[in-house]
Amino acid sequence: DTLNIHRLAQEVLKDGMDVATRRVWAERVVLALNEVFPLVEFQNWLQCERLIPHGIAAGRLVEDFGLNFVAAARLLNQSGYYLDDRGRYGETEPLYQRALAINEKASGPDHPETAASLNNLALRYKNQGRCAEAEPLYKRSLAIKERTLGPDHSSTSKSLNNLAELYRGQGRYGEAEPLYQRAVAICEKALGPDHPDTATGLNNLALLYYNQGRYGEAEPLYQRALAIKEKALGLDHPSTAIGVRNYALFLRARGR
């Protein structure tokens, strides 16, 4: 069940409230949206698409009223994740920056939620070519996770993989390889050899080997990563499509 209120009626209602009352309702909006905003996964895209206009509006409320609680940071992060997934990159940076500031204040500078926010912002900088700004954020995120979650936690493997991706993109292959290898080993142990995250690590390590001209080592990793994704996610999942594309590009470059 839904209720639509015309924007003009909304403005009249808000105009009749004092600042304290508007803040109370702003908090309620953010808390309610956080409760229903799902994990950003392919199967939840439809629900995310319905909620993202409200998530963006709630982000403005968070800023306007200085709402510094954990639920606000999560909503900002989830909104940013979805916008990233759908290629709306220009809208994500302020969401991630605000989420990081909230998590550092509400959860502390060494909390896993803060590490997640650091990782998100670092990824945004990396994708904009701002690698010098991304690297210290990735490193800080990894250090927090290793300290608070442990060196063999699956979330730690994601930070290792992301830092390795940054190094690979800069041609720093010698620094990237041990990070990739450690990330894959953690995933295989913590999540299992047939988990999609394991496939992602294998795919990225294959890319590194390809970049280095180590084709014989790259191909079986591409094949294994694709097989895992097809089995775990299905033939029509976007992550499977990435695996298909990467292996196809490898084959084309090899003249096959």
- Please state the CA-atom Rg, rounded to the nearest Å: 21 Å
Order of helices and strands: HHHHHHHHHHHH
- State mean pLDDT (0 to 100 scale): 95
* Count, helices: 12
Helix content range: over 70%
Strand portion: under 5%
Unreliable stretches, pLDDT < 50, 5 or more residues? Answer: none
Describe the structure.
The structure is a single chain. The protein is mainly α. 77% of the residues lie in helices and 0% in strands. It has twelve helices and no strands. It has helices at residues 7-15, 19-36, 45-65, 70-85, 93-106, 112-127, 131-148, 154-169, 173-190, 196-211, 215-233, 238-253. It is elongated and about 70 Å long. The N and C termini lie far apart (54 Å).
Short overview:
With 256 residues, this protein is mainly α. It has helices spanning 7-15, 19-36, 45-65, 70-85, 93-106, 112-127, 131-148, 154-169, 173-190, 196-211, 215-233, 238-253.
